[in-house]
Design a protein that fits this description.
Blueprint: E1 8-9, E2 14-19, E3 24-27, E4 32-39, E5 42-47, E6 50-54, H1 84-91, E7 109-117, E8 120-127, H2 137-149, E9 154-161, H3 174-179
Parallel strand pairs: 8-9
Antiparallel strand pairs: 1-4, 2-3, 2-6, 4-5, 5-6, 7-8
């Protein structure tokens, strides 16, 4: 479906984030928008010359159904360790709202560490952004944190944004480069 051509009228007020500044704003009922990206359960909207991001919990405000997110590892038993692949799987559902490629394929995740604790596991992520000063950094980090927290057995998450090494296009997977027309 090509969302970019269809104008949608917002059905109720909802919270949004202005892209690229990351400033929180209120999207007002009756506003006309176009969806430019619908990935990872979130939506990027074109509104009056600006881009906004709304989360999937507000999908109904633009006439969409909230995506049902599957809980990872439905066979989890208390005390089972969190598997690294489960964390990577969740990180692959996190997108920069301006780029239709997930943060793993973009090469933004530098380190993933899982530390067992008494009542579950602690997950620490080191990641970067495509550009220093990107206002969307906190929103992307929060999205990653929330998705990792959905993994059974995770008791705490810390997502740290780092700037060394500086990100460049060579860090992207071949799949990401192909998808973005860089190969």
């Amino acid at each position: 479906m090509d969302f970019t051509k269809e104008t949608i009228t917002v059905e109720r007020d909802c919270d949004a984030i202005l892209i690229p500044s990351g400033d929180p704003i209120k999207l007002i009922k009756g506003t006309h928008v176009r969806i430019t990206q619908a990935l990872g359960g979130d939506y990027t909207l074109f509104v009056n010359g600006n881009l906004l991001k709304i989360t999937g919990k507000d999908a109904d405000a633009i006439g969409m159904k909230q995506e049902k997110t599957e809980k990872p590892n439905l066979n989890y038993k208390p005390g089972d360790p969190v598997k690294e692949e489960q964390v990577w799987e969740q990180l692959r559902t996190v997108y920069d709202p301006e780029i239709p490629v997930n943060i793993v394929e973009l090469g933004l995740v530098y380190d993933l560490e899982i530390t067992p604790k008494e009542k579950g596991d602690f997950v620490r992520i080191k990641m970067t952004l495509t550009a220093p000063g990107c206002g969307m950094g906190p929103a992307i980090a929060q999205d990653a944190e929330q998705k990792i927290r959905s993994i059974p057995g995770v008791i705490d998450v810390f997502v740290e944004i780092v700037w060394e090494p500086l990100w460049d296009r060579d860090m992207m997977s071949d799949e990401a480069k192909l998808q973005l027309g860089m190969m």
